[in-house]
Amino acid sequence: MSSTASGKSGTWRNWGGNVAARPAREVVPASVEELADAVRRAAEDGLTVKAVGTGHSFTSIAATDGVLIRPQLLTGIRDIDRTAMTVTVEAGTPLKRLNTALAREGLSLANMGDIMEQTVSGAVSTGTHGTGRDSGSIAAQIKALELVTADGSVLTCSEKENPEVFAAARIGLGALGVVTAITFAVEPVFLLTAREEPMPFARVLAEFDQLWAENEHFEFYWFPHTERCSTKRNNRSAGPERPVGRLGAWFEEEFLSNGVWQVANLVGRGVPAAIPAIARVASHAWSARTYTDIPYKVFTSPRRVRFVEMEYALPREAVTDALRELKSMIDRSGLRISFPVEVRTAPADDITLSTASGRDSAYIAVHMFKGTPFQAYFTAAERIFTAYEGRPHWGKVHTRDAEYFAQVYPRFGEFTALRDRLDPQRRFQNAYLRRVLGQ
Description:
Blueprint: E1 12-13, E2 20-21, E3 25-27, H1 32-44, E4 49-51, E5 67-69, E6 77-81, E7 86-90, H2 95-104, E8 107-108, H3 120-126, E9 142-148, E10 154-158, H4 163-169, E11 178-185, E12 187-188, E13 191-200, H5 201-206, H6 208-214, E14 217-222, E15 228-237, H7 246-270, H8 275-285, E16 289-293, H9 295-299, E17 307-315, H10 319-333, E18 341-346, E19 361-369, H11 375-387, E20 391-392, H12 402-408, H13 412-422, H14 431-437
Parallel strand pairs: 3-5, 4-5
Antiparallel strand pairs: 1-2, 6-7, 7-11, 8-12, 9-10, 9-11, 13-15, 13-16, 14-15, 14-18, 17-19, 17-20, 18-19
């Protein structure tokens, strides 16, 4: 998607359009050796290095004025091990290609996020996640990975090999090296039944613990300026397959979720006073439906309407209180919010800087339409989230720094010590990492 450098100027822009950078040079390596060579050459020239996927992060995590590495030639499946039930995939492979390739092989990831435009390395390095009671983020499904470190050497790590690197590099923020391949746990492809239905805000919050406990994957969207939510429960199913019909899929995914939504947001951007009325109509447009399909067709959907996003992981038990505060803040603020607030969950994991590291988590994501001023809304929301020791998604807008992260991540020092060891010269440094990890 819009990650391509915009022609002659050599300016790189992210998908959300809120980050731009002018690298000194771009490299498109066709092999791990070429990538390692690019890192060594950057060192000789005194330049920093950043790999960039499809630019789906809203932070400047991939921005650089040094060497920009584009991994689009490092794609495809390297190996499928049906005994160990793993797949090893090149770092530049888009999730979309991985999901369809796995489905052809009768395999699937256990859980995934709701879009699949990102490269696998970009998705895991920033902590991309879906929703799950028992299954965690995409990074939590990693069994091994390979990365090129600052001196140009290739390091493989797993629970057995370089385990301290493995603990951190699964969500490495691009700070420990350039990921070149990832080995994921996979399982035989299965069916999920999705049940989508509207529900009042007060009821969703009152029954949240029960909805979470009774469903493998529960999420919901709340429409600001209304009392309405759209809920989604995904559970494994014995079948039969009952996909959304082609017309239904087009109507829901393209016409409503992208076409009408784009127009509604353009109207809202031009006439903010119309937004509450639009929100009321939008909250009624998403009707109840049930369908059964293979995982990636249930978990993911196209997102063509451009937006900017902030998302925080809170301790799961704090999420309903935080949502009530968010709602009352919006109600009394005079803010006009056209995008729904998204709520998902993840179980605790053991990845050093995972937003779910060591604690069962719930995520609250706030969005604003591209080109709409978002600072006032995001600042007010962030104030609520940080009061609960929230951890921001590494690829989404936030204002936190290393001092804050040292307080909310018990193993923060473990990560920075490993970075000192693997990248003492800060070859992979940029302004974002300087802020979030310190010098």
